[in-house]
Design goal:
Structural class: alpha/beta
Catalytic activity: N(1)-methylguanosine(37) in tRNA(Phe) + pyruvate + S-adenosyl-L-methionine = 4-demethylwyosine(37) in tRNA(Phe) + 5'-deoxyadenosine + L-methionine + CO2 + H2O
Oligomer: single chain
GO molecular function: 4 iron, 4 sulfur cluster binding; FMN binding; metal ion binding; tRNA-4-demethylwyosine synthase activity
Helix content: 25-40%
Shape: elongated
EC number: 4.1.3.44
Pfam family, one: Flavodoxin_1
Bound molecules: flavin mononucleotide, iron/sulfur cluster
Keywords: 4Fe-4S, Iron, Iron-sulfur, Lyase, Metal-binding, Nucleotide-binding, S-adenosyl-L-methionine, tRNA processing
CATH topology of one domain: TIM Barrel
């Protein structure tokens, strides 16, 4: 031992022998020696050890075979594998639909794939990996099919001073819960939790109105409902509204902190006895809550504001509101989205294309190529209307193959009365407005829905305006048409004129012959209704839309066949009318007085219009720019037909006044035309300027738009001219808002009172009894007297509504 380590100690200092300090054992001497060594050389020892360890690590790393890390399974590999067809692979593991399993079930689940088959048996460990698409797309908040189950919690907030709203809120919440039932759960996994009722006097605003409430565990989305009475005294409503406003304006908080909620809707309670109109304060606080919630939720109004007076119509209005909400919530549970819609921003103009001119009136587009083609064919081959059915069958896409039959077709049904010649042309049947055409793009951009290949539907500005209680079109004042229940459509986007005042954008087909595929009337009927309702539904979130009118609008009662193009150009117009009438939808059909044969063959319509755009040949050529060379003869034949049919059809002359074109010195000429056609009514309307290239290229400017006073002057002059001829006409009604005045035959004056309104139920009853060619007269379905406010000298604005200026500010009645 001494030889080996000369410094090896023989004893340990400080310890006596016997205590282990004198005669040292070999072991204790060794320990002592090691300690000394360590103290003397510890720094070089540490450094060299570290160095050796590093060398060892580098050596092992570069030579050892790589191994999988067991703690993280290679879940990504499946995702990366290319698909058979080269497209990106969506994981074949179904996204989880079930809630998280309980702990004791985990092992069992991990050993099998989600479709129930057994996996490799290897336990899945490590972090849970979510596969498939994210449950909610960032852009529209849509829940995609196959995502995890979500819970929808409806919260019903209310305030109440005298207690009725509290009871109403509880009863409503119970009924809503029952209606929602769990139907959605069966289909897509979203579940409704029982609606919770919360008193605004007790609810913690910070918990609900700064952000949606926080939830633990399962994902819960919130839907807010409010039942808000109004009080013109200090109440909890004031502090609640203050809180909403402050939150919105608080610079530390996002302006729409409630955007994560699924949606909201407000129902107001008020008292019409003390506060008869909205201007006088009816439900004013509910309207405020609705407005501020739109801002805070980022325009998530899911259903229009409902309002009612519990002593009068409250129950009915609330039940309507509830029905609408059930629809919306069911859709939400199935799709996770409020659907397409015009989001309500609180801005009075946000949904209205107010720059839009009057929608109602026949207008047209031109397409140079089609004009040329039309001209070529008009003098060419002709086909009987009776044969159109057969042609239609042939010209529809083959149902099995989706291919179009190569049917030769060139039809001029417009002249079928004259010629019986059969088709000889060999042109291929084309669609009037193919989906990939610029015309289709232009029309859809302007808000039309194209149905089939030649029909269109659009909601007019008056329909939107009536939904918001801002006035109906003149047809409400004159004929009792509810604008919000009126569908504006045409079965033919093509026309045979190119009127200068047409405010459409010169892109539509024109022609004198029908040379396109003919869609069956049922397809058009179903399509226009579906698209109309879709467009109405899109108005759901717009501020100011009345729940009551919205609910009514879901039942079309009137159809204005006047959108654009020429409705009687469509070969199956009578069948189409039959479908409208079959569903008790009234028909107002406007034609351009260029298709006398079709006019003569037309069956009963509720009201038949002919556009009278000028009083003489030259003026008509200049303003209507007709394609038919014999346009004036056609025009006059149409007037004769109208005269013959005046005791069968309720006929109307529609005059559109364009200063500098068809007003000056034409009163006498128009009076002559009235004398020739003897229409039941003459509607006179100032043109609406739209500033399109079509109108400007025709030399039309704002200077051509007459002032209302000028229209009044014209109408009084026309009335005098008619009376001078011994014709019994008088000025019956006016709608100053749309620059429109109605002259009526005294056939519609009973006991000194004008009866311009229509009894629609009676019309349908007569039609059902006597058939579409039945012998009944316009007087048979004449309605009650024209309301006082609509008669000449009273302006004609619907007193139920509020007039607003372009910025949505109320205009005081004068
Ligand atoms: C003091 C008071 C003020 C009211 N002010 C208004 C009002 O300004 N506008 C309105 O439409 N209704 C007003 N009402 C009617 C209430 O909104 C209506 O009766 C409501 O149904 C009451 O609900 P409650 O019983 O839950 O308090 C008022 C009622 C009270 C008692
Ligand atoms: S009749 Fe109907 S479509 Fe025409 S403007 Fe009035 S509401 Fe609109």
């Amino acid at each position: 031992m001494e030889k080996l380590w000369p410094n090896f100690p023989q004893s340990v200092p400080g310890l006596r022998p016997g205590q282990g300090g004198g005669d040292l054992t070999v072991m204790s001497r060794f320990t002592h020696y090691a300690l000394e060594l360590w103290h003397e050389h510890r720094i070089p020892i540490i450094i060299s050890s570290l160095f050796l360890l590093s060398l060892l690590r580098i050596y092992l790393h570069s030579t050892a075979k790589r191994q999988d890390l067991l703690v993280l399974p290679k879940l990504h590999e499946k995702e990366k594998a290319p698909s058979q067809n080269g497209s990106p692979v969506v994981s074949d593991e179904k996204p989880k639909l079930m809630p998280e399993p309980k702990k004791d079930k985990i092992d069992e689940r991990e050993d099998s794939t989600s479709d129930g088959s057994q996996s490799t048996g290897r336990l899945k460990r490590g972090p849970r990996r979510i596969k498939g698409e994210p449950g909610r797309s960032a852009r529209n908040g849509t829940v995609e099919a196959g995502t995890e189950a979500r819970k929808i919690q409806v919260l019903v907030f209310y305030s109440s001073l005298t207690g009725s709203s509290e009871k109403i809120a509880h009863t409503f919440a119970r009924a809503l819960g029952d209606s929602l039932g769990g139907s959605a759960e069966k289909e897509h996994g979203s579940t409704f939790l029982s609606p919770r009722v919360l008193d605004l006097a007790e609810a913690d605003y910070d918990e609900y109105f700064i952000t949606p409430p926080k939830t633990e565990g399962e994902q819960t989305d919130f839907f807010y409902l409010f039942i808000i009475p109004s009080y013109n005294i200090d109440s909890i409503n004031d502090s609640f509204l203050e809180h909403l406003q402050e939150t919105h304006h608080d610079f530390r908080i996002d302006t729409s902190p409630l955007a994560p909620i699924l949606g909201y809707s407000v129902f107001g309670l008020g008292d019409r006895e003390g506060w008869p109109t909205e201007e006088e304060g009816f439900c004013f606080q509910a309207r405020e809550v609705d407005k501020w919630m739109a801002k805070l939720s980022g325009r998530k109004r899911a259903y229009p504001l409902g309002m009612g007076d519990w002593k009068r119509d409250g129950k009915e209005r609330l039940s309507e509101w509830q029905t609408g909400l059930v629809d919306v919530l069911t859709q939400l549970s199935q799709t996770g989205s409020l659907g397409d819609g015009v989001p309500g921003s609180g801005d009075p103009l946000e949904s209205d294309d107010e720059a839009e001119a009057e929608d109602d009136g026949e207008v047209l587009f031109e397409e140079v190529a089609d004009v040329k083609a039309g001209k070529k064919q008009s003098s060419g081959s002709l086909q009987d209307v009776e044969d159109l059915g057969k042609i239609m069958q042939m010209s529809r896409p083959d149902s099995a193959t989706g291919q179009k039959s190569r049917t030769p077709l060139a039809i001029d049904f417009t002249t079928q009365g004259k010629s019986r010649a059969k088709a000889t042309a060999t042109a291929m049947v084309k669609e009037m407005v193919p989906k990939n055409s610029p015309t289709y793009a232009a029309l859809t951009k302007q808000g039309y829905s194209i149905v089939g290949s030649h029909s269109g539907v659009k909601i007019c500005r008056w329909t939107k305006s009536a939904l918001r209680g801002r006035g109906s079109c003149y047809k409400f004042s004159f004929y009792g048409i509810n604008s919000h229940q009126c569908m504006e459509t045409t079965p033919s986007l093509s026309c045979s004129n190119k009127c200068v005042f047409c405010w459409r954008h010169g892109t539509n087909p024109v022609g004198t012959t029908w040379r396109w595929v003919i869609d069956p009337p049922q397809l058009i009927f179903d399509g226009v209704k579906e698209n109309h309702y879709k467009k109405i539904k899109m108005m759901r979130g717009v501020p100011g839309v009345r729940a009551e009118r919205f609910a009514e609008a879901m039942r079309i009662r009137h159809c204005a066949l006047s959108l654009v193009g020429e409705p009687i150009f469509y070969p199956h117009i009578n069948e189409f009318l039959g479908m409208l009438h079959g569903e008790r939808i009234s028909s107002f059909l406007v034609c351009n007085a260029q298709h006398p044969d079709q006019l003569a063959a037309l069956q009963h319509v509720t009201q038949l219009y002919v556009s009278i755009d000028a009083s003489n040949r030259e003026s008509l050529r200049r303003i209507d720019r007709p394609l038919h060379r014999d346009f004036w003869e056609r025009f006059q034949r149409c007037l004769d037909i109208l005269r013959e049919r005046r005791f069968r059809q309720r006929t109307v002359f529609r005059l559109t006044l364009v200063k500098g074109f068809n007003v000056e010195d034409e009163v006498e000429g128009y009076a002559d035309l009235v004398e020739r056609g003897l229409p039941c009514f003459v509607e006179v309307k100032g043109v609406t300027y739209c500033g399109t290239s079509t109108s400007s290229s025709a030399g039309l400017t704002m200077a051509n738009v007459p002032f209302y006073q000028e229209v009044c002057d014209f109408v009084t002059a026309l009335e005098r001219a008619l009376q001078k001829r011994g014709l019994q006409y008088g000025i019956a009604a006016e709608h100053a808002h749309s620059c429109c005045i109605l002259l009526a035959s005294e056939r519609f004056k009973v006991d000194g009172k004008w009866h311009t309104l229509i009894d629609y139920d009676k019309f349908f009853q007569l039609l059902e009894e006597k058939g579409p060619d039945g012998d009944f007269a316009p007087e048979d379905y004449m309605g009650p007297p024209t309301p006082e406010w609509a008669t000449w000298g009273n302006g004609g604005f619907d007193p139920r509504d509020q007039r607003v200026d372009k910025k949505g500010r109320p205009i005081e009645a004068t």
